[in-house]
Amino acid sequence: MRIAINGFGRIGRIFLRNIINRPGIEVVAINDLTDTETLAHLFKYDSVHRGFKGEVHFDSSNLYINGKAIKVLAESDPLALPWKGLHIDLVIESTGKFTSKEGAQKHLTAGAKQVVISAPSTGKSVPTVVLAVNDSEVDLSSPILSNASCTTNNVAAMVKILDENWGIIDGYITTVHSMTGDQNLHDAPHKDLRRARAASASIIPTTTGAAKAITAIFPHLDGHLGGAGIRVPVLNGSLTDFTCSLKGQPTVEEINIAFKNAADGPMKNVLEYTNDPIVSTDILDNTHSCIFDAQLTSIVGGLVKVVGWYDNEMGYSSRLADLVEKIAQFKSI
């Protein structure tokens, strides 16, 4: 399968690290408005995930990763991209700008056969895939798919287990999330006045689209989930606090057993179970979507609280690579 990456930012670069050695998949092009020298440097060196364990070189129009040439383009309009001539089977849309069906469609018009958006898609017409949660219910041959968000992948695992075992009545998602490039280094104008403030200086309440995205996966919970985000001054590593009321009345032990069984069984490689008193640095470079913290499970009256950690870059990019690999296997059948 021939892959192109549109947007070589945090997710695009970590995705490439994850996909580069997977058999049957070839990354042949990257589209980004930045010069090749800068792209090569940012791929080779990373402040969170450290140096790439391989060779990285560049010339004026290519990156060379472990000796393999990847063509670098610099087109702001996807319609101008040479996907047809490059025989692109699938585009990873990771700019954050073309998340609608109409935006992603431009890659198909340019000649690509399929697009996976590395973000929640605006509108309801693009199927959302969360591996180990709803991938068996989604047509992987759909021309445009969304891999949801890092937070959605994290909390969807917890929602699925609680809902299937005891039935969720109502719930609230609070993501305590590391700072991202959408925030400001110093106080400066931003459409979200809280995100306008210096990212490393404050705890910053903001929004999350996870609650809305979750209802695309669990439509029967539409109107029963809410959510908020809290940005904290760490480079990477996040957690989701999910508090809910259930139809059943489990004990803390029963909840933890259900998560342990899922981590050892159907959600293996997506969900990890820990009973250790971990902190955010302990989950950096962890490829799971959700690291369930059994020590933090609690029940008060009719309210249940569970907590899942996640490396919001590596965990999400790993699922993105897994999805591409699953699509490639599906198409080879």
UniProtKB/TrEMBL annotation:
GO terms of molecular function: NAD binding; NADP binding; oxidoreductase activity, acting on the aldehyde or oxo group of donors, NAD or NADP as acceptor
GO BP annotation list: glucose metabolic process
Domain Glyceraldehyde 3-phosphate dehydrogenase NAD(P) binding intervals: 1-150
Residues of the site described as Activates thiol group during catalysis: H177
Keyword NAD: yes
Alphabetically ordered keywords of this record: NAD, Nucleotide-binding, Oxidoreductase
Annotated binding of NAD(+), by residue: R10, I11, D32, S118, N312
InterPro entries given in the database record: GlycerAld/Erythrose_P_DH (IPR020831), GlycerAld_3-P_DH_cat (IPR020829), GlycerAld_3-P_DH_NAD(P)-bd (IPR020828), Glyceraldehyde-3-P_DH_1 (IPR006424), NAD(P)-bd_dom_sf (IPR036291)
Pfam families to which the protein is assigned, alphabetical: Gp_dh_C, Gp_dh_N
List of catalytic residues: C150
Family: Belongs to the glyceraldehyde-3-phosphate dehydrogenase family.
Subunit structure: Homotetramer.
Classification via NCBIfam families: GAPDH-I
Protein's recorded name: Type I glyceraldehyde-3-phosphate dehydrogenase
Species this protein is from: Mucilaginibacter ginsenosidivorax
